[in-house]
Amino acid sequence: MIHPTAVVHPTAKIDPSVEIGPYVIIDGPSIIAAGCRVESHAQLIGRVEIGPECVIGRAAVIGTDPQDLGFDPQTDSSVIMGTKNVIREHVTIHRGSKPGSATILGDGNFLMVGVHLAHDVQIGNKNILANCCMLAGHIHLGSNTFIGGGAVFHQFIRIGDSCVIQGNGSFGKDIPHFSSAMRTNRITGLNIVGLRRQGYSAEQRASIKELFHILFCSGKNMTQALASANQRQWIEPASRLLEFASAPTKRGICPWRGEVDTD
């Protein structure tokens, strides 16, 4: 199942069921689990662990050094990928920046052509990143989020679960769970269609909407909004949104860019 033009490092551990296409380079102690397909001209560099049933597209490059002028190439770090991920053409995923660190993908993610994941990025499950999205170092992305093509994200921010993010947007602040985001650091509402499709109940959606309204649409600053929200108990998943808003990164949270209540 390994094409004769492929170059495979002798320390690589490859399940017999794996398909490796023409001119693939596996340069290091990679681990490739059952049912994977590595298409032509793809490169796996260094310590790359790929879970079962993943597809690595043509000319994708996974495991190369971080784009950091201070990085020591002798650092022992890796890329770790779960099951059933689809990595399309020309995707680049860089390894972790510190000894023992890793850039991590969960399960069932779909990274379209030209997506870039920088060092130490961690993403959850079932995310869709359209063409040419760029995630800088140390970003944490949740699960079930859709990111439109060409969107770019500053290092060290968080992107929540079940968000929908406009293509060509530019973000340097945290994007909370369940949000619709666009342009530059702008939250415009809730991802209601996504929440319905992902099976959230009417009760859960109503709770999320109420909390979102308190946090972002009431005209209060975040300290005041959190004080108001914490006066009551919230069901899951609204409680997850409250937890997210209560612990922002140093970059802060994208603000609401719409009309606020004046009551």
Annotation keywords:
alpha/beta; 263 residues; 27% strand; 27 strands
Describe it.
The protein has a ten-stranded mixed sheet with strand order 3-6-9-12-15-18-21-24-26-27, with no helix packed on it. Strands 1-4-7-10-13-16-19-22-25 form a nine-stranded parallel sheet, with no helix packed on it. The protein has an eight-stranded parallel sheet with strand order 2-5-8-11-14-17-20-23, with no helix packed on it. With 263 residues, the protein is of the alpha/beta class. The chain has helices at residues 192-197, 202-216, 222-229, 238-246, and strands at 7-8, 13-14, 19-20, 25-27, 31-32, 37-38, 43-45, 47-50, 55-56, 61-64, 78-81, 86-87, 92-94, 102-105, 110-111, 116-117, 122-123, 128-129, 134-135, 140-141, 146-147, 152-153, 158-159, 164-165, 170-171, 179-182, 186-190. It is elongated, with a radius of gyration of 20 Å. The termini are far apart.
